[in-house]
C-alpha cells in the first residue's frame, strides 16, 4: 500500500536506559520509520524488543537519547505529553479507579477545557460507539476486562487525537473476546480515520489487522511492509522465523539477475529464488520457502527436490508432510484438505517436493 | 441419633464458643486498659474534689463539669464564663488544625518524593523519616528549644547575617509550640501518606498527562483523590495527639501558650481539682470524637470523582 501523508516519522531514534552504574541498555537502536495518515500500523515483535519504548517516546513519557520524532513534519520534542495530539490505550488500560465510566471517557475533553454540554454529548457518542451506554455510571472496577478495554479505547478516542497509540490492548482478553475486539478496532479505525499505531507480539493479530507492519527485534526495525510483503517476502531470518512457519534451505549463489538469483542448494538442486529490492547476494545464502507454497508430488522427475516422507500430520483443515530431503535437511509441506478422501501418500514413500521461483526467497542474512 | 443438621449446629456452637475463648485475652486487655480508665474518669468527674487532690468517694457533685465552662468569683460569687479555659480550648484546636495542615503541606511532597524513588532506595528514605522516633520526645523537644531560644541557632544565624539586631522572641509563643508540634508529628503524616502513595499505579499519572491534564490538574484530579485514605489517616494521626499534646507546649510554650493537655495536668497536680481534670479530659475526648466524625464524613463524601 502506498503511504499517504506522513503522520508520524521517527528519524534515527535511539533510546538508551542508563541502569544504575553498570551496563546501559539500548532499548531502541537507530530506528527510522514513517507512518502515514489514516494508517493502521502495527509494531510486531517479541517481548522486550522495544515496542512500548517507541510508543512512550511518541506519547512523550520518555525522551529519545538520540534522533527525532516528527508529527506532521514538526519535531515534537519540545511538547510535553499533555500538549501532544496523541492518545494512548495503555496495556493495563490505566482507567481512573475513582471515576465512573462516563467520567473516564470525558476526562480528556474536560482537561482540554471543552464546555460541559459538549463533553457530555461526546461522552454519549463514544459510549454508543463502543456499545456501553448502560454502563455510563458504573465504577471502572465494576465492569469486566473486555468492557474496561472498550472504555480505555473510548477514553483515548474521545478527544479525537491525530494518532492513537495502542500498547498490546488485546493481550489480556480471552481468545473469543480478542477476535471480537480485533474486528471492532478495525471498524473504529476506518470510521474515525485516525492513525492507529498498534503494538502486539501476536503475529496473527498483526497480519489480520494491519495496513502495514514493522517487525522489531532487539531495538531495531528489521522490515516494514504490508502483511503480504512480510509473510510472502521476509527479508531476514528473524522475520521469516517469527511470522508463520517456514523452510530454510542453505546454498551457494551461482548468479544473480534482475530480482532473481540462481542458487545451488546443499540439498542437491539448483533453483531460482526471488531477491529483495537492490539485493546482490553472493557466497553462501539462505533461501526460505513457506510450507503451503510447495507441494508434494509423486513424480520424482518433475520435482524441485526429492526425499523420503518421514511423517504425515493431519490437522483437519490441512495436512503437514515432513520430508527428509535426499541432500540432507528436512522440508515441511502443507496441503490444504480440499476434499475429504484417502491421503495420496504414505509414510516412507519416496516423494518429490515442488515449488517455483516465486515461492523461494533469498534472505539478506 | 443426632441428625446431620443437629451435628452441624452443635459444631457451629462449639466454633463460636472457641472464638470467644480465643479472643478473651484481647477483650480483657481492651476492657482493663482502655475502657476501664475512661469509666473511672467519667465517675471522678461527677464527684466532689478532695481537699488535697483526689476525690471524695461517693459524694456526688457537678462542680467539676460546672468549672469547665464557668468560674465563680471568689469574693462575690458571681458566675462568669471560664474565659481562660475557653481560650485554651480554642488555642488547642486552632494550633492542632494548623499543625495538621502544615504537616500535610510538608509531608505530601516528602511522601511523594519517597514513593517515586526506585524500590531499593525507598526503605532508606523511610528509615531517615523515622529516625526522630528513636529519641525520647522530651529530649527532642529540649533540642528544639536549643534551636528556637534567643541565643539559639535561628537567632544566631540571623544575627550573623545582620538581618536582625536583637533576637526575635520565639520561645514561649504559639510559634514555638507550632514549630515543635510540626517537627514531632511530621513522621506521623508522612508514613500513612507514603503508604497510600506507594500503591498508586503511576501509569494513571501518565494516563492523566496523556489526556491533556497539566501537572496541577494531575495532582488535583488524580493523585489527591487516590491518596485520600492516606490524607485522612495522616490528618487523624496528627490532629488527635496534637490536641492532647502536653510535653511540647509545656517545654516550648511555657505558661503563656498552654494547651488542653497542660490544663488537665495542672488540675491533677498543683490545681488539686481532680473532678475538673476528669471533666476536661472527657471534654477533650468529645471534641476529638466530634471533629473526627465531621472530618471523616466530609472527606469520604468528597471522594466521589470530582475530588
Ligand atoms: N524505564 C526503563 N528502565 C530501564 N530499562 C527499561 C525501561 N523501560 C524498558 N526497559 C528495557 O528496554 C527494553 C525494551 O522494553 P519495552 O519497550 O518495554 O519492550 P516491549 O514493549 O517490546 O516488550 C527491555 O529490555 C526493557 O527491560
Ligand atoms: Mg510492552
Task: Explain what the structure shows.
Chain A has about 375 residues and is an alpha+beta fold. Chain A folds into 2 domains: about 5-230, Rossmann fold (3-Layer(aba) Sandwich); about 245-360, Nucleic acid-binding proteins (OB fold (Dihydrolipoamide Acetyltransferase, E2P), Beta Barrel). Chain A contains 8 helices and 20 strands. In chain A, α3 crosses α4 (about 145-155). The mean pLDDT of chain A is about 90. With about 300 residues, chain B is mainly alpha-helical. Mean pLDDT of chain B is about 90; it is low at about 305. In chain B, the strands form 2 sheets. Chain B has a two-stranded antiparallel ribbon with strand order 1-2. Chain B folds into 2 domains: about 5-80, no CATH class; about 85-300, MetI-like fold, CATH 1.10.3720. In chain B, β1 and β2 form a beta hairpin. The interface between A and B is medium-sized, with 28 and 22 residues. The structure holds adenosine-5'-diphosphate (ADP) and magnesium ion. Adenosine-5'-diphosphate binds near residues 47 and 52 of chain A.
Element layout with pairings:
The complex is a heterodimer of chains A (365) and B (307).
Chain A: E1 6-18, E2 24-36, E3 40-44, H1 51-59, E4 66-71, E5 74-75, E6 86-89, H2 101-111, H3 116-129, H4 145-157, E7 163-167, H5 175-192, E8 195-200, H6 203-209, E9 212-217, E10 220-225, H7 227-232, H8 237-242, E11 247-257, E12 260-265, E13 270-274, E14 284-289, E15 295-297, E16 305-314, E17 318-325, E18 330-336, E19 350-354, E20 360-362
Parallel strand pairs in A: 3-8, 3-9, 6-7, 7-8
Antiparallel strand pairs in A: 1-2, 1-4, 4-5, 9-10, 11-12, 11-14, 12-13, 14-20, 15-19, 16-17, 16-19, 17-18
Chain B: H1 4-45, E1 47-49, E2 55-60, H2 63-69, E3 70-72, E4 79-81, H3 83-115, H4 119-130, H5 137-148, H6 153-160, H7 174-198, H8 202-210, H9 215-226, H10 228-243, H11 247-253, H12 260-268, H13 274-301
Antiparallel strand pairs in B: 1-2, 3-4
Bound molecules: adenosine-5'-diphosphate and magnesium ion.
Amino acid at each position: 500500500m502506498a503511504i499517504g501523508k506522513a503522520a508520524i516519522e521517527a528519524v534515527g531514534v535511539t533510546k538508551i536506559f542508563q541502569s544504575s552504574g553498570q551496563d546501559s541498555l539500548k532499548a531502541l537502536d537507530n530506528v527510522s520509520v514513517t507512518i502515514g495518515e489514516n494508517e493502521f500500523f502495527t509494531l510486531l515483535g517479541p517481548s522486550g524488543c522495544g515496542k512500548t519504548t517507541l510508543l512512550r517516546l511518541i506519547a512523550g513519557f520518555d525522551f529519545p537519547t538520540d534522533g527525532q520524532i516528527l508529527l506532521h513534519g514538526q519535531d515534537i520534542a519540545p511538547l510535553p505529553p499533555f500538549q501532544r495530539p496523541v492518545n494512548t490505550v495503555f496495556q493495563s488500560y490505566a482507567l481512573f479507579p475513582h471515576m465512573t465510566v462516563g467520567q473516564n471517557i470525558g476526562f480528556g475533553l474536560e482537561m482540554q477545557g471543552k464546555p460541559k454540554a459538549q463533553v457530555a454529548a461526546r461522552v454519549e457518542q463514544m459510549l454508543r460507539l463502543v456499545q456501553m451506554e448502560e454502563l455510563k455510571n458504573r465504577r471502572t472496577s465494576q465492569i469486566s476486562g473486555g468492557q474496561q478495554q472498550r472504555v480505555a479505547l473510548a477514553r483515548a478516542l474521545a478527544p479525537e487525537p491525530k494518532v492513537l497509540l495502542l500498547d498490546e490492548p488485546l493481550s489480556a482478553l480471552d481468545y473469543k473476546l480478542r477476535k471480537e475486539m480485533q474486528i471492532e478496532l478495525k471498524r473504529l479505525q476506518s470510521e474515525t480515520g485516525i492513525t492507529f499505531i498498534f503494538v502486539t507480539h501476536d503475529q496473527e493479530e498483526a497480519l489480520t489487522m494491519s495496513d502495514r507492519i514493522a517487525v522489531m527485534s532487539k531495538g531495531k526495525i528489521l522490515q516494514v511492509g504490508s502483511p503480504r510483503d512480510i509473510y510472502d517476502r521476509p527479508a531476514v531470518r528473524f522475520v521469516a522465523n517469527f511470522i508463520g512457519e517456514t523452510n530454510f534451505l542453505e546454498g551457494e549463489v551461482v548468479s544473480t539477475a534482475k530480482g532473481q538469483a540462481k542458487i545451488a542448494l546443499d540439498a542437491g538442486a539448483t533453483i531460482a529464488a526471488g531477491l529483495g529490492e537492490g539485493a546482490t547476494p553472493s557466497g553462501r545464502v539462505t533461501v526460505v520457502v513457506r510450507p503451503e507454497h510447495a507441494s508434494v508430488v509423486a513424480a520424482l522427475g518433475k520435482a524441485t527436490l526429492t526425499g523420503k516422507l518421514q511423517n504425515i500430520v493431519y490437522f483437519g483443515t490441512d495436512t503437514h508432510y515432513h520430508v527428509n530431503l535426499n541432500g540432507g535437511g528436512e522440508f515441511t509441506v502443507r496441503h490444504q484438505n480440499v476434499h475429504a478422501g484417502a491421503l495420496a501418500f504414505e509414510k516412507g514413500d519416496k516423494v518429490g517436493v515442488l515449488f517455483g521461483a516465486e515461492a523461494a526467497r533469498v534472505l539478506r542474512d | 441419633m443426632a441428625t446431620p443438621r443437629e451435628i452441624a449446629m452443635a459444631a457451629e456452637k462449639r466454633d463460636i464458643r472457641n472464638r470467644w475463648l480465643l479472643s478473651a485475652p484481647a477483650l480483657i486487655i481492651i476492657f482493663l486498659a482502655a475502657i476501664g480508665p475512661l469509666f473511672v474518669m467519667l465517675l471522678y468527674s461527677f464527684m466532689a474534689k478532695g481537699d488535697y487532690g483526689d476525690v471524695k468517694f461517693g459524694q456526688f457533685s457537678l462542680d467539676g463539669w460546672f468549672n469547665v465552662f464557668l468560674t465563680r468569683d471568689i469574693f462575690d460569687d458571681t458566675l462568669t464564663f471560664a474565659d481562660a479555659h475557653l481560650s485554651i480550648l480554642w488555642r488547642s484546636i486552632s494550633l492542632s488544625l494548623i499543625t495538621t495542615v502544615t504537616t500535610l503541606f510538608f509531608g505530601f511532597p516528602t511522601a511523594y518524593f519517597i514513593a517515586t524513588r526506585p524500590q531499593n532506595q525507598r526503605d532508606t528514605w523511610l528509615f531517615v523519616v523515622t529516625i526522630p522516633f528513636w529519641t525520647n520526645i522530651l529530649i527532642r523537644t529540649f533540642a528544639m528549644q536549643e534551636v528556637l531560644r534567643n541565643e539559639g541557632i535561628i537567632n544566631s544565624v540571623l544575627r550573623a547575617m545582620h538581618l536582625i539586631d536583637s533576637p526575635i522572641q520565639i520561645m514561649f509563643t504559639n510559634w514555638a509550640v507550632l514549630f515543635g508540634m510540626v517537627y514531632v508529628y511530621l513522621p506521623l503524616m508522612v508514613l500513612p501518606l507514603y503508604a497510600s502513595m506507594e500503591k498508586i499505579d503511576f501509569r494513571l499519572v501518565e494516563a492523566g498527562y496523556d489526556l491533556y491534564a497539566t501537572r496541577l490538574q494531575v495532582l488535583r484530579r488524580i493523585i489527591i483523590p487516590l491518596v485520600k485514605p492516606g490524607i485522612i489517616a495522616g490528618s487523624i494521626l496528627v490532629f488527635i495527639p496534637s490536641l492532647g499534646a502536653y510535653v511540647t507546649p509545656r517545654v516550648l510554650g511555657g505558661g503563656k501558650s498552654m494547651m488542653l493537655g497542660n490544663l488537665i495536668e495542672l488540675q491533677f497536680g498543683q490545681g488539686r481539682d481532680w473532678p475538673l481534670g476528669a471533666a476536661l479530659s472527657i471534654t477533650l475526648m468529645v471534641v476529638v470524637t466530634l471533629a473526627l466524625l465531621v472530618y471523616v464524613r466530609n472527606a469520604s463524601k468528597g471522594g466521589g470523582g470530582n475530588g
